[in-house]
Amino acid sequence: MINESADIKPVPTSDDVAVPSGTEPMAFAPKKKRARTSTKAIMAAIEQRLGHKFADISLLTTAFTHVSALKSSRGRSDSYQRLEFLGDHVLGLVISDMLYRAFPQADEGELSKRLADLVRKETCIDVARSLDLQEGVKLGAVGAGAGARLRRSVLGDICEAVIGAVYLDGGYAVAAAFVERNWLERMRKPVRPLRDPKTVLQEWAQGKGLPTPVYREVERTGPHHDPRFRVAVELPGLEVSEGIGGSKRAAEKAAASAMIAREGVK
User: Which domains occur in the chain, in start order?
Assistant: First the structure.
């Protein structure tokens, strides 16, 4: 039982504490809120990297909106999918025009191969990463790991959607200038070989009056589910070249590439 007659002293409050003359009572510092970059700031930074100021910023926002981020009441047309469709065809037209002007001696087959390499998904992903477009991707409620994977997987689609948005907002000339800025160097220096090395070697051999190269399996090693093949390619009067691969075709290509490199075939 508490003794009410005991001398209980109340805990002093800030109003009860004596403050030396000329000073102010200490105020408790508010908790610092975690700084968050607004969508507006992110879009402004992306505009700067794209080199285009949008008259209708909603186009750019839509270009970054994955269908998972939409409320159930909204249609899929509010995601980037329609812009991706448009951007894909704008990209194809601009690249085709660039190739036609840059390679006046190339035939239709070579132009088609160059076009396919430049508009493929991996190239679009590479461009998107160079512009840090992953920063603006809007996803729905997904786990952290799943979100990171999804963000990477849709980058190529986002890149094409951005081209569509730039085209709608600024017109063909602006979209073409954007594509040229980001694809010109890739057009000049393709990452992948445009032609199969076996085809290159065969055409070179025919030009020299030689027969068709002969490929011969030299060795097969490794388990049944993961074999390794060693293949030799032979041409009369030339030293045999060998290549190794996970399939006979891959090993044949490696052997052809080895002979091409050794003989200085362009």
Answer: 39-188 (1.10.1520.10), 197-263 (3.30.160.20)
